[in-house]
Amino acid sequence: MKTRHKRITFIAAGLAGLGIAAALVLNAFQSNLVFFFSPSQVAAKEAPIGRHFRIGGLVQEGSIKREPDGLTMRFIVTDTASSIPVVYKGILPDLFKEGRGCVAEGKVDSDGVFHADSVLAKHDENYRAPEVTQSLEKAKQSANEAARTLSK
C-alpha cells in the first residue's frame, strides 16, 4: 500500500470514529433531556403524552390526599389558570405543602393525570424556579386579558 493510500485510510477511519462518537453523545443527550411545562401548557396538549417532562406550579389548597397504602399521594398543581392532577408514590419532601411551589417530574397518561417519579419542593419563601415564575406571570396576563375582553 502506498503512503498516500495509508493516509487516506487513516483519515477515513478517524472521521468514521468521530462520527460514531458524535452520534453516541447526541443520542445520550437527547434521552436525558427533560423539558419543563406549565399546567396551562399541559392542559392545552402542548406537552408530550407518555414522555418524561417536568411540570411546575403551586400546590392547590385542599388538594393533597393520601391513599390508604400510605405512600401514594394525590394533589393538584396549578398555575392559577389551569390545574393538573398529580399522582406520586413515595415520600414527599418536608417542605411540600399546600399553596407552595413544587416541580414534579414524570409523564402524563392518556387520561390527563400526571404520574410523577420525583417531586421537588420550593426551599424558601424567596426562591421560585424561573420557569415557574414565567408560567405564573403568563397565566395571570392571559386571565387579565380574558377578564378585559369579557368586560367590554
Largest sheet: 5 strands, mixed, barrel
Residue windows where pLDDT falls under 50 for at least 5 positions: none
Strand segment count = 7
Total domain modules: 2
Number of helices, counting only DSSP H or I runs of 4 residues or more? 3
CATH class of the largest domain: Mainly Beta
CATH architectural type of the largest domain: Beta Barrel
Ends distance: 84 Å
Helix and strand sequence: HEHEEEEEEH
Structure, described:
The chain is α+β, with helices and mostly antiparallel strands. The protein has 2 domains: about 1-35; about 35-150, Nucleic acid-binding proteins (OB fold (Dihydrolipoamide Acetyltransferase, E2P)). The protein is about 35% helix and about 30% strand. The protein has a 5-stranded mixed beta barrel. The mean pLDDT is about 85.
Summarize the structure.
With 152 residues, the protein is an alpha+beta fold. Helix content is 37%, strand content 28%.
Q: Can you tag this structure with a few keywords?
A:
single chain, alpha+beta, OB fold (Dihydrolipoamide Acetyltransferase, E2P), 2 domains, 37% helix, elongated
Write the layout of secondary structure elements.
Blueprint: H1 3-31, E1 35-37, H2 39-43, E2 53-59, E3 65-66, E4 72-78, E5 83-89, E6 101-108, E7 114-121, H3 130-151
Parallel strand pairs: 1-2, 5-7
Antiparallel strand pairs: 2-4, 2-6, 3-4, 4-5, 6-7
